[in-house]
Each structure stands twice: as C-alpha cells, then as structure tokens.
TrEMBL record:
Pfam families: FliM, FliMN_C. Keywords: Bacterial flagellum, Cell membrane, Cell projection, Chemotaxis, Cilium, Flagellar rotation, Flagellum, Membrane. Belongs to the FliM family. GO terms for biological process: bacterial-type flagellum-dependent swarming motility; positive chemotaxis. One of the proteins that forms a switch complex that is proposed to be located at the base of the basal body. This complex interacts with chemotaxis proteins (such as CheY) in addition to contacting components of the motor that determine the direction of flagellar rotation. It is a peripheral membrane protein. InterPro entries: CheC-like_sf, Flag_FliM, FliN-like_C, SpoA-like_sf. GO terms for molecular function: cytoskeletal motor activity. The keyword Kinase does not apply. This is Flagellar motor switch protein FliM. One of its GO terms (cellular component) is plasma membrane.
Length: 331
C-alpha cells in the first residue's frame, strides 16, 4: 500500500482539525474507500509517450535550425524558425485547427509507410514567394487563386527545404522525402482516418516583418516502425565499437610507419639583443652544457632520452645511454 509520509507538524495539524471538528474522520475513510475514476476519451488515444514526444521535439529543433539557415540563404532576409509545441491529436482536430485555405505540402518518406504534411501559413508562404520574385517579403493572402507559376515556385522552394528533414531525421531513420502533392484546401486531403493519432510539431516562423506558423503533421503509421528509436534508452545507450583484427593490424602498421622528429640538444645559451646584433663570422657562443656532460634527446619536442654525441663511420651520431627522468614510464 502506497501513501504519503507526513511530517510531524502536518500530523499535529491533522489531529487538531479532527479534534476541533473541522474535519470528519468518517468522511475521510469514505473518500478513501471510494474508487477513483478518471475519464478517458478513446477518440484521443495517446499512442506516444512523453519520452517519445520529447525525442521528436529534439529532432525538429534541429530541423528548425537547418530551415533557418536554408531560408536565410535562399530568401536573403531575416529568418527565424523555432519549435513552439509538439502535441499528439486526432487527424480531424489537426484539419480543424489550420486555415480553410492554406499551403499543404504532402511528402512521402520512403522506406517508411504513409505520408506527412507540412502546412505553411499563407502569411509565411506569400512572404517567401515575394522574396523569391525580388520583392521586400510582403505577405498577400490570396491562396485560393494560386497561379501555375506560383504553384511551381512554391513546390520548388519546399521540395528543396525538405532535404533538411532528411538530415534532421538521420539519427533515427534514413528517409528519402519526396514531394508528391501541393494542396490548398485541407478538406480535400484525407491521408488517414479522422480519429487516427498524429503528432503535430508547430514551428514559429518569422520572415522579415511577416510571421506565422509552419505545422508538420506526422501520422502514427509513419512513426510506428521506428518507435523504439524514439525512447530515451536509444538516445542514451553507448555502443562500443569492436575493431576487427584486420583493422588493428592496419592501425599498428600505420603507427609504425609514422615519422617522428628526433633532435639532440647540445646545450643552450642566453645573450642580449645587443650582443646578438654584434655577432659576426668566427664568433664563439659558450653553451651552458659541459663537453663531457650528457645531452637531452627529444622526440616530437618532448624530452625522452639521455645521450652522448659521437661519430659513426665519420658521421655525427648520438648514442642513447638512459631514459630521461623527467618523463613518465608509460611515455
């Protein structure tokens, strides 16, 4: 049996209320014995967990950043896009929530089944179109009278933009978005049954002085095959890559063939700038290291060994006599 743990002050207040008659102990027992009933609307079936909704939000936050970069370069004006909300609702409710006349881009996302909708508010769509045609980005809502040229330009604009969706989704699925339809009346677009659960990601969009919403509608049937990848366990798991023996052998061979700069330092000296400027051919610079003292051998600018200079076959050479004590054993 689960219950709350009360502090001593709460217990004292409860006993005081019962003793003074402010609270009836019998009524408390009656309330506890009554079954708690919570209403459930089967038309609004919750098929996605909060964890999965958060994952979808993260994915489309990345998509919003990619869209901001794409439209800023394409339209050459100030563009700001960010995720406003992510909710799961019936498809019928999504259709009712958008304008009666709007821009609806329908995409297939193979290899996943079903289609997704990108709904662009007319204020935003016409501001984009005005910029593409060389205007200042003024919005003009006449979506019911789209000409063939306007339809073609909008199709090209959003067909290229959806390439960013492919990149944003790459962490959970390799999709190939294809623009299959551009519609203006949502009543003529029946993708799924009215009671089918869809996820709607709303993006706040600012283009110049015009603002509006871009809504992405994703039916449950599209996300069903990749639902496990939307859980936090998938995002947080760390898969350790096991290297094949051939890879290790090739890596070791490459390391063995790597060149390392090795130098032997006979000594050093400090002189003033005035002395340096007066140096001439034949001058002798006295080093701080005696002729019989060992010298430091560096590997990649790091001191590693102690050696002594000499000659091998009339060529200058250095003999390693010990490790440099300043380094660690594993180095």
């Amino acid at each position: 049996m689960s219950g709350e743990v009360l502090s001593q002050s709460e217990i004292d207040a409860l006993l005081s209320a019962i003793s003074t008659g402010e609270m009836n102990a019998e009524e408390l027992k009656k309330e506890q014995s009554e079954r708690k009933v919570r209403s459930y609307d089967f038309r609004r079936a919750l098929r996605f967990s909060k964890d999965q909704i958060r994952s979808l939000t993260r994915i489309h936050e990345n998509f919003a950043r990619l869209l901001t970069t794409y439209f800023s370069a394409k339209l050459r004006t100030y563009v700001q896009i960010s995720v406003a909300s992510a909710d799961q609702i019936p498809y019928e409710e999504f259709v009712r929530s958008i304008p009666k006349m709007t821009i609806l881009n329908v995409f297939e996302v193979p290899p996943l089944d079903g289609r997704i909708i990108m709904e662009i508010n007319p204020n935003i769509a016409y501001a984009m179109l005005d910029r593409v045609l060389g205007g200042r980005g003024v919005s003009l809502n006449k979506v019911e009278n789209l000409t063939e040229i306007e339809t073609k330009l909008m199709s090209q604009l959003f067909e290229n933009a959806v390439e960013n969706l492919k990149e944003a989704w790459s962490s959970i699925a390799e999709i190939e978005p294809i623009l299959t339809e551009l519609e203006v009346n949502p009543q003529f677009l029946q993708m799924v049954s009215p009671n089918e659960t869809v996820v709607v990601i709303s993006l706040n969009t600012q283009i110049g002085d015009s603002s509006g919403m871009i809504n992405i509608c994703i039916p449950h049937v599209v996300l069903e095959p990749i639902m496990p990848k939307l859980s936090v366990h998938y995002w947080m798991q760390t898969t350790k890559k096991v290297r094949e023996p051939q890879e290790l052998e090739l890596l070791e061979k490459s390391i063995r063939l790597a060149d390392l700069p090795i130098s032997a330092q006979l000594g050093s000296s400090e002189i003033s700038i005035n002395e340096f400027l007066q140096l001439s051919v034949g001058d002798v610079i006295q080093l701080d290291n005696e002729i019989n003292s060992p010298i430091v051998i560096t590997v990649g600018n790091e001191p590693k060994f102690i050696g002594q200079p000499g000659k091998v076959n009339k060529k200058l050479a250095v003999q390693i006599i010990d490790q440099y004590k300043g380094g660690t054993d594993d180095e």
